[in-house]
């Protein structure tokens, strides 16, 4: 039986005042299928309230009118409990303005700001690809984050970084096929990764909860764990039995409007309290799949 996660109590969310599908950068997006603004807001309010009800706290950032994807706050940067933030360098140009506002927010809220590669034009890094789990920062790379960013994360923050190469266009961020649940369990969807990374994943997660295709594409892997509660966009009866068996309270939320942009509960919430104390190593270390 795992111990509760040591992070995931404090979140940043972006209020969806300008959420639209203006461009297509993942297989879920279509400019022909726009979110309904009122329903969007109700779903977002319910997610925020559910985090608070579970004992978490939420800080709210206003959305830039020029950045329709900014609602997916998970990608604004990797923030730590000891007050550091590694800003994302987005793969696609239409999301890059988000970083200007994110940088201001992190700095204004007492976070010391870093950029992977130092100058902000270094390798792409999107923080939806990074989670603290076990003895390392687990980072997905390929569709969005570049392998070189892992090297920078490791050396600049003295971290043990384990890379997983994503090889599935529908699973373009690590937070879609991978969700830490407690210290030993994580929801995983192995077909998201190439063969070497699937083998690596088996070594990273002592007690994997393997998602079916249907569960993974209902965004069940894009869930948020707040203490003993897991907030999920969908939960099959099978999954519910496993999760409640671990002592978790399962809360299912309808986040249909956000699925139109290719993201769900996790994408909408950026944990501000990652604990790096158990994953630091002098000089850093990057472990890549064979
Ligand atoms: N953390 C996430 N997976 N966020 C989803 C981001 C969705 C956004 N439309 C994009 O493709 O960039």
UniProtKB/TrEMBL annotation:
<protein>
    <submittedName>
        <fullName>Amidinotransferase</fullName>
    </submittedName>
</protein>
<keyword id="KW-0808">Transferase</keyword>
<dbReference type="GO" id="GO:0016990">
    <property type="term" value="F:arginine deiminase activity"/>
</dbReference>
<dbReference type="Pfam" id="PF19420">
    <property type="entry name" value="DDAH_eukar"/>
</dbReference>
<dbReference type="GO" id="GO:0016740">
    <property type="term" value="F:transferase activity"/>
</dbReference>
<dbReference type="GO" id="GO:0019546">
    <property type="term" value="P:L-arginine deiminase pathway"/>
</dbReference>
């Amino acid at each position: 039986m795992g111990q509760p996660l040591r992070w995931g109590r404090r979140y940043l969310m972006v209020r969806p005042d300008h959420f639209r599908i203006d461009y297509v950068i993942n297989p879920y997006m279509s400019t022909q299928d726009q979110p309904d603004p009122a329903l969007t807001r109700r779903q977002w309010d319910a997610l925020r309230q559910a985090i608070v009800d579970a004992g978490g706290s939420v800080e709210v950032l206003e959305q830039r009118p020029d950045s329709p994807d900014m609602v997916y706050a998970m990608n604004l940067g990797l923030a730590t409990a000891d007050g550091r933030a590694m800003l994302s360098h987005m793969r696609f140009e239409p999301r890059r303005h988000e970083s200007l506002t994110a940088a201001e927010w992190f700095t204004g809220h007492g976070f010391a700001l870093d950029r992977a590669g130092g100058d902000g034009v270094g390798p792409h890094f999107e923080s939806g690809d990074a989670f603290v789990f076990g003895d390392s920062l687990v980072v997905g790379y390929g569709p969005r984050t570049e392998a070189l960013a892992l090297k920078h994360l490791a050396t600049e923050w003295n971290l043990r970084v384990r890379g997983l190469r994503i090889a599935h266009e529908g699973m373009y961020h690590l937070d879609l096929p991978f969700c830490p649940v407690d210290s030993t369990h994580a929801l995983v969807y192995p077909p998201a990764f190439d063969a070497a990374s699937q083998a690596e994943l088996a070594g990273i997660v002592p007690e994997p909860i393997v998602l079916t295709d249907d569960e993974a594409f209902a965004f069940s892997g894009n869930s948020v764990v707040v203490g003993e509660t897991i907030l999920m966009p969908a939960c099959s009866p099978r999954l519910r039995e496993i999760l409640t068996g671990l002592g978790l309270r399962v809360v299912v939320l309808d986040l249909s409007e956000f699925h139109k942009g290719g993201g769900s509960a996790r994408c909408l919430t950026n944990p501000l309290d990652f604990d790096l104390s158990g994953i630091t190593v002098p000089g850093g270390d990057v472990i890549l799949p064979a």
